[in-house]
Amino acid sequence: GESVGLHLPTLSVQEGDNSIINCAYSNSASDYFIWYKQESGKGPQFIIDIRSNMDKRQGQRVTVLLNKTVKHLSLQIAATQPGDSAVYFCAERAGGYNKLIFGAGTRLAVHP
Amino acid sequence: GAVVSQHPSWVICKSGTSVKIECRSLDFQATTMFWYRQFPKQSLMLMATSNEGSKATYEQGVEKDKFLINHASLTLSTLTVTSAHPEDSSFYICSARDFGGSESGYTFGSGTRLTVV
After folding, report:
1. CA B90 to CA B72: how far, in whole Å?
2. Beta-carbon separation of B42 and A49 below 8 A
3. Reduced to 3 states, what is the DSSP secondary structure of residue A96?
C-alpha cells in the first residue's frame, strides 16, 4: 500500500558506532526490497537490495535483514561515518508494473 | 550505468498556471516510468505509473486531470501540474525501470522542487 505521510523519526549515533534502521513493509506478496539513502534536495540513492527468498545480504559496511514472518526489514551500517548522515527509506516491489512503494523513512544523524 | 535526467531541477510558478516536468532516460529505453511526490520530512508517495504509448495508471487519491502524464516516447515521460496551487508545492521525483542497467533495475531522477506562489 501507500506509505503514510508521517514525519520522519531520527536515529542519532556516534561516529564509529553501528547503526540499525528498521522498516515495516505492507504487502506480504512483495518479492523484492531495496534500501535507499536520500540527501537533502536529491533523489534516492541505491544502497543494497534483497529478494524475498533470502533473509540476509551483506554489502560493504551494510547488511540488510529480512523477516517475512513479521514483514520487517532492517539496515545495519557498520562503523557509521558523518557522510552516512541522511534519510534512509526502504522500498518494496509489489503490484502491477512492479512499482516501488516506499516506507516511512528514518533520518540518521551521525555525531562526531 | 543507467542515467535518468529530470528537468527542471527547480521551478517557481504563479497560482493558476501549469508547469511541465520532464523525465528522460539518457542511455536506455524506458517503457515504464514512475512519478513520486515528496513533501518536506515525509516519504516518497507514488503518484502514477507511466507506460510508453498508453495511458498512465494513477494511484488512489491522485487527480489525473490535475497531474497530466504523457509518455510519448521510450525515453521521455512528462508530468504537467495543471492550475497549480500553493498546496501543490512539493518535490517531484521520477524513476524509470532500466531492466538491468542498474543494480536494482530502477533509476531515479534527481528531482524537481516546485514552488507555487
Report:
1. 25
2. no
3. helix
First to last CA, chain A: 38
* Partner-chain contact A46 B36, CB within 8 Å: no
Polymer length of chain A:
112
Mean pLDDT confidence for B43-69:
95
Q: Which of B31, B40, B89, B79 is nearest to B58 (CA)?
A: B79
The strand pairing partners of B76, in sequence order, are B24, B73
Is the pLDDT at A37 greater than 70? The verdict is: yes
Q: Residue A6 pLDDT more than 70?
A: no
DSSP codes, B27-91: SS--SEEEEEEE-TTS--EEEEEEETTS--EEPTT--TTTEEEEEEETTEEEEEE-S--GGG-EE
Instruction: List C-alpha distances in Å: A79 to A14, A68, B27.
Output: 9, 27, 36
Task: Please determine, for residue A95, whether its predicted confidence score (pLDDT) is greater than 80.
Answer: no
C-alpha cell at position A111 = 555525531
Which helix (H) or strand (E) covers residue B11, if one does? strand B10-13
Q: Is the Cβ of A25 closer than 8 Å to some Cβ of chain B?
A: no
Residues of A in contact with B49 (CB under 8 A): 96-97, 99
One DSSP character per residue, A23-82 reads EE---TT--EEEEEEE-TTS--EEEEEEETT-SEEE-SSEEEEEETTTTEEEEEESS--G
User: Nearest to residue B45, comparing CAs of B58, B32, B30, B55?
Assistant: B58
Q: Which amino acid is at B39?
A: F
Rounded Cα gap, residues B42 and A43, in angstroms: 13
